[in-house]
Each structure stands twice: as C-alpha cells, then as structure tokens.
Specification:
The complex is a heterodimer of chains A (264) and B (157).
Chain A lengths: L2 H12 L19 H5 L5 E6 L3 H12 L4 E7 L2 H11 L3 E5 L7 H9 L8 E6 L4 H9 L4 E4 L4 H12 L4 E2 L1 H17 L13 H11 L4 H8 L3 H15 L4 H10 L9
Helix pairs in contact in A: 4-5, 6-8, 8-12, 9-11, 10-11
Chain B lengths: L2 H23 L2 H18 L6 H19 L20 H13 L2 H11 L5 H8 L3 H18 L1 H5 L1
The chains are: A alpha/beta (264), B mainly alpha (157).
C-alpha cells in the first residue's frame, strides 16, 4: 500500500467504534455512582448460609471488608436460611448448595413456595457445579451461581450483578451448563412440542445447530450458506424468542421444548 | 485515585480498553470480565496514579494475558458477539472487520488495535508491550496490509 492508500484504509477502519462495555456491576449500587454515594448508609444486606463455620466466618470477614456490603445474618443449614430470609428480608442470600439436613435446593424450593414473593436474590455457592442442580436452581428463582473456588472479585461482582436485576452464572458453570443443555436437548427430543414461537423451519435448523454447540462458521459450512446468513437467521431467532445470547437461546429451547433436530 | 476519578477514567476509556481486551482474548465476555476486574481493583486499592491511562492499559494487558494463559483451551479465538458498533447501521461490515482482525496473528492484532482504535503512537505501544518502536511500526504495517487484503471487497463497496 502506498501512503495515500494507507491513510484511506486507516480512515475506513476508524469509522468502526468498539461497543462500550456495560457499567461496572457495582456502578449503580455502590461507590462509583453518585446516587449510590448518597445511599451509602444503606449497603447491600447479605445473609450467608453454609454449614462450615470456618468458611462462613471467612466469607463474612471478606464481605464486611467491603464498605457497601453488610452481613446481617448467618445460617448453618437451609431451614435456618429460609427462616432468616423471611425474618430479616436481606437483599442477597448466599446459599451453599450442599448442606446436610436441609440443602440449598430445598431451601430455594421453600422460598419459592412462600405465599408472597420473596425479594431476596439468592446466589448459590457450590464447590462443584452439578449441572442439573444449577438448571433447577435457576428455575426455582436463584439469581446467581458462584463456584467456591472463584476469585473473590467474582463473588463481589456476582452480588452487585444480581443487585442490578441481572443473573450471574460463573464461567465454568456456564460451560458445564451448556454441555448439560445439549444432552437434555437430545433426550427430550421425543417430547418436543409443536410450539415454534414463529420460527421458520430454517430457523429451527439453525437453532438446533446452535444448541448442539456448533459455531457460526460450522453452521455456515454444514448448511452451505454464508456466515452472514447464519448471523441474519440468529438475529431473527433472538428477536422472535426475546433472547440475546446463545446461552439464553439454549435455555429457552430446553424450557419450552422446542422441536429441535439432530444434525446429521 | 478517588472513586470519582476511577469513574471518569472508566467512562472515557472503557470502550478502547474493552476493544484492546477483545483483541487479546477474542471473546467479548471474557474481555469485559477482565476490564471490570481491573477497575474493581482500582477502586479497592485506591492507590494514587500519576499517569492512570497507560497504567490501566498495562493492567488490562496483564490481566488478559493471565486469563489467556489459564484458559487457553477454553477460549477459542472466535467472535461470540459483536465487538463494534455498526457503522451507519451496517453490521455486516463491522462483523467483517472483526473477523478480519481475528485472523491476524496475536502480536499484529494487538498493535493495530492499539494504534487505530486506542489512538496510541508507536512509541506508546512500544512502552506498553515492551518492544522497540520500529518493531511496533513494522507489525502494524504487516497487519494493515493483511487487513486491506482481507477487506478489499468491503472497502470497494
């Protein structure tokens, strides 16, 4: 390229701008936001439920080091967690999945059965992510799943994320979850209903490929279409189903038993 | 740095930093995680920074390279979601640029993103990634030439 061509090409590239990231998860709730600064007297109220006192104590110290978090209660089993959630009405309940007597999922079930909707945002803490349990937990209303060996910052980020009304599923769990959903899709094929939410047969084929874990490039190759066409179909699928990510579309497909096909 | 200073730094530089992290990691979700982790650390540490912009670029680079090392097997360098805003509503063109960038070797992609979209000079890039500025410039020329070849049709249209 000569100098003039180079300048023109640089100009061509510069017309594209990187999409801005979302706000820092804590931005709306805590220190970064001026509004939050005014609300500094009302930090996020957290209850910790875990059957291991040492872990609970460590977690409490960790959370209390944050100016915007306040641990208002600790429970050593699920039953106590439910009682504290109803009594103290915390903003966030950090709930251990595997507790003796009354484990996390039982507690979640109790909370979801409450006569009035409980506003507490539940984040499941788990040492090992059991895929079916994560799916069930999300169905029962959990807002987040965090692996116990996650970095501290991720736990803090998950709390602030669920406080903004969003979901948090730790990256490793997502990987497992997608794998699980793929298996689920295969086993639930016979039960598939005819409801297609307005998806065309072609869009259902593309959706099947997405759920089966194919990349856009692989889908394009499989159906002998261009990647742009795949993206166009995906954009229509996302619009029709009201989702915005591949994980969401997979969850939607499972929850609504969409009639997906096995790719040859 | 005060929280207000961190907030301003984030608002002014987050898109470029995210673009840079995307260039290093390939996956936008991981890039955003890295970016947030860096800024959350800034908030927590509250340490005074004489020259915060180069510092955050360096911090994002270090964090992204750590993630890349840890998750080398887990994060394929493919486009999971759009990096760019659509220029004049033409999302296909933006995607073509993204895909062309992804095909570049890591070292070239890093330099071209820093120069074109983060507005850095070759000297600044050289300081950031610790290479001679001539090397930065030559990587840039190679990258630009490859991109031009990959995007020739799109540019012509």
């Amino acid at each position: 390229m000569n100098g003039s061509d180079e300048k023109k090409f640089e100009q061509f590239l510069r017309q594209f701008r990187f999409r801005a990231p979302g706000p820092l998860s804590i931005q709306r709730e805590t220190v970064l936001s001026e509004t939050a600064n005014r609300k500094a007297s009302s930090p996020v109220r957290v209850v910790i439920a875990d059957d291991h006192p040492i872990f609970r104590d460590g977690l409490r110290r960790l959370l209390e080091a944050e100016p915007d978090l306040n641990v208002i209660g600790e429970a050593n089993d699920g039953a106590e967690a439910v009682r504290l959630a109803r009594q103290l009405k915390p903003d966030v309940l950090l709930l251990d999945l595997a507790m003796p007597r009354h484990p996390g999922l039982e507690a979640l079930r109790d909370l979801s059965r409450g006569s009035q909707s409980n506003p507490v945002r539940v984040i499941l803490l788990t040492a090992a992510a059991e895929k079916h349990q994560i799916v069930e937990a999300l169905q029962l209303g959990a807002r987040g799943v965090v692996l116990k060996d996650s970095a501290t910052q991720l736990l803090l980020k998950s709390i602030h994320t669920v406080m903004t009304g969003e979901y948090w599923v730790g990256r490793e769990s997502v990987g497992n979850l997608v794998q699980y959903l793929r298996t689920q899709m295969q086993s639930s094929k016979e039960d598939a209903r005819r409801r297609t939410f307005g998806l065309t047969p072609r869009e259902l084929e593309i959706l099947s490929a997405v759920v089966a874990g194919y990349s856009n490039k692989e889908i394009a190759k499989h159906f002998e279409i261009s990647e742009d066409t795949v993206k166009h179909h995906l954009s229509n699928i996302f619009d029709k189903l009201g989702v915005s990510t591949r994980l969401e579309v997979a969850l939607f497909a499972v929850n609504h038993s969409l009639p997906l096909e096995t790719l040859a | 740095m005060s929280n207000e200073e961190v907030r301003r730094l984030y608002e002014e530089h987050a898109p470029a930093l995210l673009g840079y992290a995307c260039a290093l990691l390939g996956a936008r979700a991981s890039a955003e995680d890295v970016l947030h982790a860096v800024f959350l650390a800034l908030i927590r540490e509250k340490k005074p920074l004489a020259d915060p912009v180069p510092y955050v670029f360096k911090a994002v680079r270090n964090a992204a390279l750590n993630v890349r090392r840890q998750e080398a097997r887990l994060i394929p360098l493919e486009s999971e979601s759009d990096w760019f805003e659509s220029a004049n509503g033409i999302s296909e063109l933006a995607l073509a640029v993204q895909e062309a960038l992804i095909t570049l070797p890591d070292l070239q992609r890093e330099v071209v993103v820093l120069h074109i979209w983060c507005g850095m000079t070759f000297v600044e890039i050289a300081t950031l990634i610790q290479i001679p500025s001539d090397t930065a410039a030559s990587r840039y020329r190679y990258a630009l030439s490859k991109l031009e070849e990959l995007l020739r049709t799109e540019v012509a249209e």
